[in-house]
Amino acid sequence: MPRSTSSWRPAFVRYVVGRGVSTAGTALVNVVLAFAVLAAGGDGFSVGLVLACSVLTQTLLIPVGGVVADRVDRRTVVVLGNAALAAAHGTTGLLLLLAPERVTVWMFAAAAVTTGAAGAAVHPAFQGLVVQLVPPTALQGANASLRLVLNLARIAVPGLGAVLATAFGHGQVLIAAAVAFGACSAVLAGLRVVTPPRAVGAVLTGAREGWAAFRSRPWLWGYALAGTVAVPLWLAGYQLLGPLVLSGRAGGQAHWGWAVSAFSGGMVLGSLIALRWRPRRVMLACVLVQLVWPLPLAVLAARPELPWLLASMLVGGVSLELAVVFYETARQQQVPEGLIGRVTSLSMFGETALVPLAYVLAGTVADRIGSTSVMWVCCAGILAVTVALLPVRDVRRLRRLPAAGRGVATAEAPGPDEFPESSGSGQSGGSAGEAKCLTRSPRPTGRRLAVDRACVVRGTAGHGTPGRVCAVHVAGEVS
């Protein structure tokens, strides 16, 4: 019987609950971290140092984290990673509560290093777990549902955290965050997930296998390369320059709060749209909706009235959310399960590597030529790298996985040697009477269908010639 295409299975529900609680913990930390550093005697440089410790640690370790996520049981990785986050923030919170005079900026920096190291392993493992828990044809619905829950947590929790910080103090909020991370570990410890056999070998060998899978897919590395420019430009324009542009206006701080809420609301709306809209050419749709993403930066640079700013933020949030859902769905469907952690880590490495430099350059240049001018540059840069993806053939033609029951080729099935086994995919060799998962990179074949991932079913007695290929279940198509 074919597997159900429903994503809402008990294991996936448990996963969503655990990840949602973890996201709530991260939101609590983000609300109070800067203010806690300042209260401990730090200054603006100290806040930047703490943030840089987290970002740089994650950027440096995430290629290793991707290998770990593909070589070790992913449930164990996320459980231990969230436990480490609980220990780091819980310790800092207890110190703020019991001995605030002993807390220094370096303690926050140490906690930030722990946060970055844990995130380097947890994020690729979280992505890989989705692939293990959800049928390939249900991945877009699963991603949209998951991100809907995460976005709702990101909207609701910061306000609660601000109230808690005002009423009880920064230490109590960090302790609450630690409880959330601990609860995530407890929930996911009971997650039942079937882990296929994993390849063993050196970390460097695993990293090379991930790089080979990454570079063999032009649509994947092309989009990741664009993200290396677009993500730092967006963060510099949105997180750094946005507040600076509004700071000189009457009610600027309040307006920025409304703008951030509108953007978050747009992301929730985007998740809801992604539940219904499932474009066939998934990467083309991803790039086209992303063209609207920098609209809030253009509106901020033009200094419009508040209603126009809120409208642009809402549209920008919808655009970003749809692009993320489409891209994650394509990556999860088209990349072999045994390589998903490493491929995800390479994408994340590119997106985060230049963020610290973008912050520094944007702030420095803004002091010289003005924030609005730099905002226009950020907007133009995002548009340029996004438009540059459109001529890429694989971006235009990559299709999402067909619905259940489609994409099964029984005629003219290839021989057992036509698809060489993917090194490091974590799949065992096939023999008569068993299914053998094989992979190869898409390449032009002159035919409408090109296999990216296939499950070759070998015949048994009464069901085809023993040891011969009798069916190929296609997991992706490029036309």
Automatic annotation (TrEMBL):
The chain crosses the membrane at residues 12-39, 45-69, 76-99, 105-126, 146-168, 174-194, 218-236, 256-275, 282-302, 308-327, 339-362, 374-392. Its main location: membrane. It is found in: Cell membrane. SUPFAM superfamilies: MFS general substrate transporter. Residues 406-446 are annotated as: Disordered. GO terms for molecular function: transmembrane transporter activity. One of its GO terms (cellular component) is plasma membrane. InterPro entries: MFS, MFS_trans_sf. It is a multi-pass membrane protein. Keywords: Cell membrane, Membrane, Transmembrane, Transmembrane helix. It holds the Pfam family MFS_1. PANTHER family: INTEGRAL MEMBRANE EFFLUX PROTEIN-RELATED, STAPHYLOFERRIN A TRANSPORTER. This is MFS transporter. It comes from Streptomyces marianii.
